[in-house]
User: Fold this.
Amino acid sequence: MATGRPTIADVAREAGVSPSTASVVFSGKAPVADATRRRVRAASDRLGYTGPDPRAASLRRGRSGVVGVVFEERLGAAFLDPVKTLMMDGLAEGVAPLGAGLLLLRDEVPASTSEPAPPAEPALSLETALVDAVVLVGASGRLAASLEILRARGIPVVVIEGDAGAGIPRIDLDNLDAQRQAAEHLRRLGHEHVAIVTLPWSGRRRRGLVAASREDDPSIDVTRERLRGAREVYPDATVFETAASLIDEGWEAGAALLRAVNPPTAVIAQSDLLAAGVIRAAEECGLRVPQDLSVTGFDGIALDGFAPYELTTLAQPAAAKGRAAADAVVRMLSGEDAASVRFSCAFRHGNTSGLRPRLD
Amino acid sequence: MATGRPTIADVAREAGVSPSTASVVFSGKAPVADATRRRVRAASDRLGYTGPDPRAASLRRGRSGVVGVVFEERLGAAFLDPVKTLMMDGLAEGVAPLGAGLLLLRDEVPASTSEPAPPAEPALSLETALVDAVVLVGASGRLAASLEILRARGIPVVVIEGDAGAGIPRIDLDNLDAQRQAAEHLRRLGHEHVAIVTLPWSGRRRRGLVAASREDDPSIDVTRERLRGAREVYPDATVFETAASLIDEGWEAGAALLRAVNPPTAVIAQSDLLAAGVIRAAEECGLRVPQDLSVTGFDGIALDGFAPYELTTLAQPAAAKGRAAADAVVRMLSGEDAASVRFSCAFRHGNTSGLRPRLD
DNA sequence: CTGTTAGCGCGTTCAC
DNA sequence: GTGAACGCGCTAACAG
Assistant:
C-alpha cells in the first residue's frame, strides 16, 4: 500500500463494510446500525483516518463551504476601518449556519505599472477562487469587471454599498438621507457657516480643499452620497477631502479649516474618526466643543479613548449589514433569490453639537 | 446535453483537441502551439467556459491554494488589535507568491453551555476546512487540541506567539527581553515606584489590581513574558490587569493607579493602546507626561490621533511576523522544513518618558 | 507539441 | 440497513 493517508475505502475494507456505509457513518446522512457504526469508528481509529477529504467532498457535493469576501484595499487598510471590522464580524456570524468560512480576497486593480507582472504562481483570484458565493465590499472601481467574472462563473454575489447591476442583491445604507439629517440638525442649531470633511473621493488619496466646481463628483459611492446629503442643506459649504478615515486626517482637516480667516462654526465629518480628529484640532486651537464649534460624525462606532465626548453622529448598523449580506448569501445558495436590503442610520445627539456661537 | 456549465472536456471536443491539451492551455503548464491555443480559446468563448472548476482542480492537484488563519476570538475583537491587523497584512503578502488566499477560521472554545449545540449544518472547522496549511494566531487555550487535529490531518502548521510542540515552526518575539529593556530604561531615569499595566491574563477578562501573590501567572504567553521582563527589574511593582488592549482600558488603569495614595512615577504598559489610555488619564489628573509621569508602551504601532506624543515603546515587527509565518508555510508546502523565527523588538525612545520627578 | 489513459476520494444512485 | 458501481471535472503520466 502506498504511504498516503487512508481513504474511506480503506476504512470500509478494514471494517468489513462497503464504502457507502462508511461514508454514511461520517456524514450522518442516513441511519446506521449501532454495531456497524462502532466497527467503522474502530477501523478508522486504527488506520488514523481523519474524516473525509474536503477536496473530494467539495467536488462531489459541488459546494466548498467557503464564502469569498473581496476588498479593494490591502487587508491592513480595510481592517483599520472599524465599520468594516464590525461588518466582517456580522458576516462571520451570518454564514455560520451555513457552516462556511470566509476567504479573504483582494481584488487588486492591475495598477498599470510597466512591470510585466511577476509571473509568480497562478494567483488565486476571483477567477479561480474556490468559493460558493462572494461578497463584494465597498467596491467601486473594478466592480463591473468583478461582477462580470463572477456572473460568468455562475457564482452568487452580494454587494455591500456599491452599485451592482440589476438582479444582484445589494446591502445599502441611507447615506444621503442620514447625512442630510445631521446637516438639518446643525441648521436648526443656527449654524450658517459649515464645512464638510469628506472621506476619500476616489482611489487617488488626495488631501485638501476641494475646488467649488461641482462637476467633479466623488467616485466612491459613500463619499458622494454623504456629500450630497450635506449639500442639500448647505449647498455652498466648504469641502475638505481627506486621504483616509483616520483621526490624524481629521486633525489635518480641522487644523486647516479652523485656521482660515473665516472659520466655520460647525463641521460635518463623514466619519467618526474624522470627527474625532477635527475635535482634537479644535481643542488645540483653543476652541471648545460644542460651545465654539459643533462637530458631527458618521458611523456611530465606539470611539476608543474619546471620553468624555460623545459624538453627535449617525449610528449605522454595521454588523447588521454584514449579517444581512450573509443572509442573502445563504438564501441564494438554497436557490431562493435574495432581495436587496437598505438600512437606515439612527441620528444620535451627543455632546459635540450645540447652538451656533454668538458672532463677535 | 445537460444544462450544466461546460467542462473542459466539452471545450476540447468543440475545439477538436484532447482534454489534456485544452487543460494545458488554461494552466500554462506546458508549451502549446499558438494556433491550438487560439482554437481552444475560441471554443471556450463559444461555449461560455470560464476556466477549470477549482473544486476538481484542487482534488486533482491535492492543493487548494488556501491557508487557514485561526483566531480564538471573534473576528471583530481580533481586528481591533492593530498588531494583528498588521500581521494579517504581512501574512496576506507573504502567501501571495503561493497564489493562496486566507481563510478566516475561528477556533471557538466549545463554551460548555447547556445548549445541546444547535445542530445546524456540518460546521466548517479545523477538522473539515479545505486548507493546505494553517496559521494559529495568539493561540493559548485550545492550542493543544487544535494542533492534534491538524497533526492527524497531516496539515502543516505555524504558530504565531504561542507554545507549539516540538517540530512546529513558531514565530516569536523577544517579549521578555524587550520589556526588560523598557524597565531598565525607566530604572536609568531614576524611577523607583513603577506600576505595570498588563494585557488580559487569560480568557477571563478581569480588570483591576492583581494581588501580590506571584503564584498566579498569566496564562496568556504574551502577558506572562512581558510581565516577567518588567519584574526582573521591578519585582515588586504594582500590577494592574486590564480586560483588553484598548485606550479606554488603559484609561481606567491609569485613573485607578494615579489616584492611589502613593502613585507611581512611571507606568509600564504592555501595549501602546494601554499606554495611550494611561497618558490620557494622567492628563486628566493634571499630571504632565513625561515631567510628572513616565509611560512606556509596547508594539510601536502608529497611534492614530495621539500627536504630539510619541510613545517610548518597543517597536515590534508585526507585519514581518506575518510574512515570516507565510514564508514558513510556503517552505513547508514545498516539502522543506521551516525553522522557527524569533523577532526582536526595537526600543524606541519617544517623548513620554523622562527623569523621575523630584520628590515633594 | 499533442493524444490517450487513468485515476484523485468521495457520495450517491440503485438494487438487494 | 447494506453493498456495488459509477462518475463529479480535472490533470499527471506517459506514449506518439
Q: What stands out?
A: Chain A touches chain B through 65 residues (CB under 8 Å). Residues 17-21, 24, 30-33, 36, 56, 59-62 of chain A lie near DNA strand D (CB under 10 Å from a C1').
